[in-house]
Amino acid sequence: MYNNPEKYSKLIKDEALRLGFMQCGIAKAEFLEDEAPRLEKWLHSGHHGEMAYMENHFDKRLDPRLLVDDARSVISLTLNYFPQEVQTDPDAPKISKYAYGSDYHLVIKDKLFQLLNFISENIGEVSGRAFVDSAPVLDRAWAKRAGIGWIGKNSNLINKKSGSFFFLAELIVDLELSYDNPFETDHCGTCTRCIDACPTDAILSPFVIDAKKCISYLTIELRDEIPKTFNDKMDNWMFGCDICQDVCPWNKFSVPHSEPGFKANENLLNMKREDWLDITEDVFRSIFKNSAVKRTKFKGLTRNIDFLKTLPD
């Protein structure tokens, strides 16, 4: 039943594309030897800030066989979230494009479970787990190993055909499959646009991010008050930040997604600056009912809005 890796891999990839995933690559489940010293150094340098959870399950982050018994394969998938429309008021506090629609965790998990069910129904009894950014899995390392793209200087995974405005997700399964060649070439070259454009200098050097300086961290992960050293450096971002992706030349290849779950909330896009400054908890609940922005809560979002520099009339 389990002796045709090429056939099974093609079945899985075809179904992944049918479900709406943009890319699907497969890597052998094994210890991430190259990533271990990098992760350890990053943590010891304190670049993870208050994200204490990054220190947990160090071994599991590096070895998927500790997450799924007898794991054989890591199936990496991408899902496009690049929007057709953006916020209409150029002076409104900005929200990252990935949060325009429904919470991506819910949208992607549903697709992953459908894919896992498909594998069981069409190949046989396969054990596996689905992962979307909320478990100790090094998404970008596995996507690179699965041949999907390379890790850019801003630490995002980049694909030559579609840029970087996509989510990463994985299925770790106990099924042996046909493995893709790792993506070995770095196509960033001498370009430093992401490093040069970051207003808080969060990209310390190529591939090394100090999360404590990152606007996404400051507006989402940080629970305390935003340090005053970032006055005038937030570039009007109230939730997340897209700067290092917006300036990346490879994102000229980004095309609008076709995922219904990521359809932008028109009320969100059309809110004026004054609407955000006067936002009430009822409006927050209505606008972000099924949104990833709920993570920061009303208190967190208003903290971010209050911190932003007052723009001239």
TrEMBL record:
It is an enzyme of class 1 (oxidoreductase). It catalyses: epoxyqueuosine(34) in tRNA + AH2 = queuosine(34) in tRNA + A + H2O. Binds 2 [4Fe-4S] clusters per monomer. Its main location: cytoplasm. It holds the Pfam family Fer4_16. Pathway: tRNA modification; tRNA-queuosine biosynthesis. Its EC number is 1.17.99.6. Keywords: 4Fe-4S, Cobalamin, Cobalt, Cytoplasm, Iron, Iron-sulfur, Metal-binding, Oxidoreductase, Queuosine biosynthesis, tRNA processing. It comes from the Bacteria. It is found in: Cytoplasm. [4Fe-4S] cluster 1 binds at C188, C191, C194, C248. GO terms for biological process: tRNA queuosine(34) biosynthetic process. The active site is at D133 (proton donor). Residues 179-207 form the 4Fe-4S ferredoxin-type domain. Cob(II)alamin binds at R61, D133, N154, L157, L168, S216, C241, D242. The keyword Metal-binding applies. Monomer. Belongs to the QueG family. PANTHER family: EPOXYQUEUOSINE REDUCTASE. Catalyzes the conversion of epoxyqueuosine (oQ) to queuosine (Q), which is a hypermodified base found in the wobble positions of tRNA(Asp), tRNA(Asn), tRNA(His) and tRNA(Tyr). This is Epoxyqueuosine reductase.
